[in-house]
Structure prediction request, 379 residues.
Amino acid sequence: MKIKKITSLIICFAFVLGFLNISAFADAEPETADVYIAAQASGGFLTAPETVTVAENTAESYGFTDEVDGVSVLDALVKTHELIFGEDFTSATANTYLAAAGGYVSKVFGIQTYAFGFLLNGGTPNDGTDSQYGGYNGTTVATQKIDSGDKLDFFIYRDQSYYSDIYTWIDGDLTAAPGSEITLNVSGSSAMMGYLYKTPADFKAAAEPAEGVFLAWIGENGILDAIDGAATDENGNVTITVPSDFTSGVYYITATGTDDSDAPVIMNPTKIKITNDLKAEISAEYASNTLTVNINVKNNTSDAVSGAAYAAVYSAEGILKGISLKALNLSSGANTAAVTIDNYAYESGDYAKAFIWNSNLAPLCRIKSAAVTAAVPAE
Prediction:
């Protein structure tokens, strides 16, 4: 009898433990990932590129299936449809917007097409194994896992005859002050050929200068604000002026249009940090064949800023007459610096300019020019 009671207690105890485990599992929060998503078609963004929290059960909640233990690209693609179509995208209507049987997309953003593509962290994701066709075996939206900090680009190829679309990168002066000029470089690689490269770094290393593409600021809701005259040269270079009404913060810029071979651009939002952290003004004094450009700088941050001050003097006709450079270490608060230009011959109408750069030679603030004053009138 005692044995039966003990056996009953063990069975009861096991049942309770099992119930508790099932309850705990049912109450567990799904795994999530914070992912930056940019979705585009026909040369425009379908929603504002942004960082989105994606749950591992997003696809399943709309009737789709992935093969990932965690958050999949398919989860993120379904989440993107939520953002684009809002309340119109439901579990009952999802198939009218998206079809991804076996991980292969045949309808996306409500468009029936096999010209869908996606990139992960600026490259074509693969499983690391060699493909019999060259390159590496790619993954699908249903088999590729994503993690917090990842970046996803969803797009429909615009060239659906030769699939010549290029994914683009912008490099150069990515920190600037309002009203300053910055020089940027745009390069691109064929998205269709991305499978040839094992890593995003390898993919970018294969990029070539993108000639003839245009630049645009990305505004609210992903709307593009084209920059007048901002077309790249044969080396992919372009110089633009940052709008003077920009305040301190992070802005996004992208290449757009087509290159000189008519290959459509796949836009890649690139951060430009605009800072008003430094305020500066100058005066310029001539004496004994030397020009002294005095720079008064206020560092509005709590951290020291290292960089360099570049001073130049011009004639009234805008002809450069002398230049000089001096390293700076600007503490928080007020700072002064003097940059001298030797062997300078003063003429009435001369004026000086100064620029403050960081260690990457990106401009940190805009400084108005100043007329040169002579301590002793020139003969």
